[in-house]
Design brief:
With about 180 residues, the protein is of the alpha/beta class. The protein contains five helices and four strands. Helices cover about 40% and strands about 5% of the residues.
């Protein structure tokens, strides 16, 4: 069986729909600001999660939801076909309101069926994407729709304690990004 770029399971759809209701209520009651920029992994399950979690909060404020698709936000690369992403064309056709970064290739050039990305490689990839985001995005409040192992790698990058999260969970993480001095 091939399970390429797996979809959300019905249980996952229920979880993120409930999470979307929490986000909508928190934004409506002024308990949480609307993210200035929304970033998402290009894998189907994150693309859909982004829409289900945040569309209600954005709609109620009259703000368009225009997530930015970032290749390097994706899950740790394994030999599992669920980690192989769909084509750029498929993403554009199914999520036309999403801003796909120009460097995202038509076919998945990162996934290989014969190797796993090491923890060190995954953390380095997350370091690279965070540097890109923090060097170009001036918004103070950002949203990243990512996978559990991707979150673990980001925690390693920012020096936060490691922990595992359940599916359909929001994690608030305060990060102060500063430009590195010249060497």
């Amino acid at each position: 069986m091939i399970w390429a770029d797996s979809e959300l399971h019905p249980t996952g759809i229920q979880q993120v729909t409930e999470l979307g209701e929490i986000w909508s209520q928190a934004v409506a009651e002024g308990m949480m600001p609307l993210p200035g920029t929304v970033y998402t992994s290009p894998l189907r399950r994150c693309l859909k999660t982004t829409r289900l979690v945040l569309s209600g909060a954005f709609q109620q404020t009259g703000t368009p939801l225009e997530p930015r698709v970032k290749e390097l936000l994706r899950e740790r690369l394994t030999d599992h076909t669920c980690d192989r992403r769909s084509t750029r064309t498929w993403i554009a056709e199914n999520y036309p309101d999403y801003d796909i970064e120009p460097s995202l290739t038509e076919k998945d050039e990162l996934w290989r069926g014969d190797r796993w990305e090491t923890d060190e490689e995954h953390v380095a990839r997350k370091q690279q994407v965070l540097e890109d985001i923090f060097s170009t995005d001036k918004n103070a409040f950002l949203s990243l729709t990512i996978h559990s192992y991707a979150l673990a790698a980001i925690l390693a990058v920012v020096g936060a304690p490691a922990f595992r999260v359940r599916e359909g969970t929001t994690v608030a993480l305060l990060v102060k990004a500063e430009a590195a001095g010249a060497l």
